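[audit] Reproducing an earlier prediction to check determinism. Same input, same settings, fresh worker. If the tokens differ from the archived copy the diff job will pick it up downstream; this log only records the rerun itself.
[audit] input (190 residues):
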Amino acid sequence: MRETGHSLLELLFAVALLLFLMALGLPGLRAYSSEAHILGAANVFHQEFRKARSNAITTNRQTAIRFEETAAGPCVSVYEDGNRNGVLSVDIARGVDRRVSGPRLLVPGAPSVRIAIHPGTPEPPPGRGVLDTRDPIRFGRAEMVSFTPLGGATPGTFYLAGDGVQAAIRVVGESGRIRLLIYRKKWSER
């Protein structure tokens, strides 16, 4: 009888080859994981914007998402117009425009995703410059995006940063369209 099998050297070579192939695939897996995290977080905010727009249309009242700074950290609240002149910071302070939800902590939900802009990120089209990293929430001085009963909105952009990936949730003014853009070497719409 003759016994057959593999030598220790053959086994070590097979394991080394397997580790080498795994190492080649790891960067791609990390990039995919990072993009999946930022897409998941961006979709949560995208849906919040869509829900506020839908509320404005169905209730026939202007609805706004307001980004607020609290002792617990950055928060987001949704307000509804109470006197038919739009959601205004003055009316919120007076209690005329009422809060319909929030404040909720403004957390992306994925550990590797944050509300930020990577240094050197170019502006989304049609922009031609580089984004200023100091302001990832760009909806005017009131830090509020308002949706009208006719579907229009306050234009602006909300930025999320992940490991090597940048996301932008952009609200287009007159149409109220909400766009989700991802930047990894170039901007693309999702």
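[audit] rerun output stored. Observation attached for the diff report: The CA atoms of residues 37 and 111 lie 8 Å apart.
[audit] end
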